[in-house]
Amino acid sequence: MSPAEDRFASVAAHYDRWVEWEPRLKKEMPFLTARIPAGATVLDAGCGTGAHARALAAAGHRVTGADASAAMLAQAREAEARIAGASSSAEACIAEARSADAEDTETPRTAAVEWVECDISDAAAIGGRRFDAVLALGNVLPAFGDADAVHRGLVALVARTSPGGVLILQYLNGERIHARGRLVAKGSDDATGDIWVRHHFEAGDKLWFHSYQLRHGESGWTAEVRAREYNDVPAVEVAALLAQLFERVELFDGLTGNPFDPLESDSLGVLATGRR
Ligand SMILES: C[S@@+](CC[C@H](N)C(=O)[O-])C[C@H]1O[C@@H](n2cnc3c(N)ncnc32)[C@H](O)[C@@H]1O
Questions:
Q1: Which end of the chain has a smaller Cβ tally under 10 Å, C or N?
Q2: CA 13, CA 224: separation in Å to the nearest integer?
Q3: What's the pTM?
Q4: Residue 111 is assigned to a structural domain of this protein
């Protein structure tokens, strides 16, 4: 995707600082590892900077991280190389310390992820391969674009799931935002001094995603404002669609084992098992 079309190009370098990965992975990985069979082939669709993909590869899965944004994938590759570099220098120290013990060669390594830049809605992407588990986490579904693109993307994710396989989705709970009128997230980036505010709020019968960023550059502050329609797929709709294609569909309060509450859950976690 060219930088002009890459909606994540301007946030990619900051994304990992904005997401609190340590608590997020701590909360979400037990859900994922309990529901993905050992050694499965996994497609992390819209993998972004790749934290789930790397964690699942380290847990023994064969992982493909696919994303349309070259900028996000560049961050994913850099993080993987950084971690591999850190673990190989740690391994070198350990190996040196243990050089007297020639039989001790079993040091765990971070398994490599296959990174693919593609539009996941394109049937020919990744050689048309199917996966035992397909994931679209952290608001990938609404990030596909307009209502048609979101629908096409959802169908493409199902098509990528092998017979008998599992599909796991996670995205913001639009019903709660509708009921409350708006959802506001604010923050600042300590490393850069940037300030950002995001609103998701109801306007008529639609949701909008607004993002405001103030960045401090050499010539002072600049402001960036973006607004776009946010295309949610309501829980009942996604469940009805997937129920036709999977043996079982369960809705969760995000990626926790707790049941989904339309008015209280921040995000919707969808687990569809037994692809027909
Ligand atoms: C909000 S980020 C989520 C990243 C990551 N999964 C997470 O949990 O933090 C959404 C990602 O979806 C990607 N994306 C959007 N549409 C896509 C498409 N059609 N094909 C592949 N990736 C897409 C974007 O480039 C972006 O990296």
A1: C
A2: 16
A3: 0.90
A4: yes
